[in-house]
Amino acid sequence: AAGCGSAPAGRAAGVPGPADSAPAATALPGGTRQQSRFISLRLVPERLQTSGTVRFLEVAVSDTRTGATIRRLLPDGSHGLQVTGLARDRSGNLWITYSRGPYSRGGVAGGDPRPDSCGNMIAILHAATGRITTFLRTGDNVLISGAVPSPDGRLLAYSESGCATGYFDSYLRVTDLGTGRSWTIGQGLPRCHLITSPSWSTDGQALIVGYASATLPAYTGQQGTCSVPRREGLVSLPAAAAQPGLGGRTTGADPGCQITSAAGTAGGGMLAIEACGGNGYLSGPARLLVLDARMDLVRRFTLGRCTDGNELAADLPGRSVLVSAYLYCNPPGRPGPVTRLWSYRGGVLRPITSVRGDTLGISLMAW
């Protein structure tokens, strides 16, 4: 059995009425500057507090060519919530997902996560005005993450589950931004499956996720624990209709590997990162997979070894993709973990920067 703390997911309430306006924030990069700068959750320099040295996170604007932080945009948190998703829409607005929980009661396997101990909010930082409005708030017995608008601006998708059940019963929720109507994909799957955060095909018609099915038709163990799911593959599924499962086009990872991140690219293609090896796919190589519109493998790049966190972020046309990977036993022969950042464009993977440290130094990227 596997244990968990917090995880993506939760049932959201409907789209609220008029959004609440917040004080103005720092302006977002736009126009040609948008391609030369990206937004992400980043580690900030260590600061000394009374309890010792602590690492802080913040939402920051960085240079796409060098990876250097240009300026602080937002703190990693709002009203006790933490950032769990960043995405840009076609107008350049930044969609920020915040969540918290569940809290653990402890004393049993899995930590006994407490119902009604979560909270979520989706906010929009408007590029034209620099102001923040609230798009969605949820109740306290659900957990969501990774909200991302479709490239055509019609739909919004995010991961969702019950507060106390975490990613072991997660599914996708899709909302029509014009009407407020929403539906779910995968809510009928047996407990103990795994679904990665969603990304979009460049035409806005399909969602792309990594998915590992449950090994048992029913699991009745303690909340916070689960049977280990099957090997994870890549699924491209239609976004416009509800379905209890995850029916769509699929492709598998290499033997001994699982898909951990995915993104759509121009012409209907896709990129995916696979993690390989034992110890829960953590001890072996990490590779970037390039797939065509038929989901056939075109090329693979080796990123390093021992990835315990990685992400892909495509620009709106899907021609350029940022790739980040936390590699805790890389580079070989040198002590200490590192987060590496690359750009992928036109079949070329170009290194941008490396951030040393014992946690993912660049994550939740958007541009």
In short:
The longest helix is centred in the N-terminal third of the chain and has 5 residues. This protein is an all-beta fold.
Describe the structure.
By secondary structure, this protein is mostly beta strands. It contains 2 helices and 27 strands. It has helices spanning 32-36, 278-281, and strands at residues 2-3, 37-49, 52-63, 69-75, 82-88, 94-100, 119-125, 132-137, 142-149, 155-162, 171-176, 182-185, 194-195, 199-200, 206-212, 225-226, 233-238, 249-252, 257-264, 270-276, 285-291, 297-305, 307-314, 320-327, 338-345, 348-356, 362-366. The strands form 7 sheets. Strands 13, 14, 15, 17 and 18 form a 5-stranded antiparallel sheet that branches. A 4-stranded antiparallel sheet has the order 4-3-2-27. It has a 4-stranded antiparallel sheet with strand order 5-6-7-8, with no helix packed on it. The longest helix is centred in the N-terminal third of the chain and has 5 residues, at 32-36. The protein is globular and about 50 Å long. It starts with a strand and ends with a strand. Mean pLDDT is 86; it is low at 1-24 and 47-54.
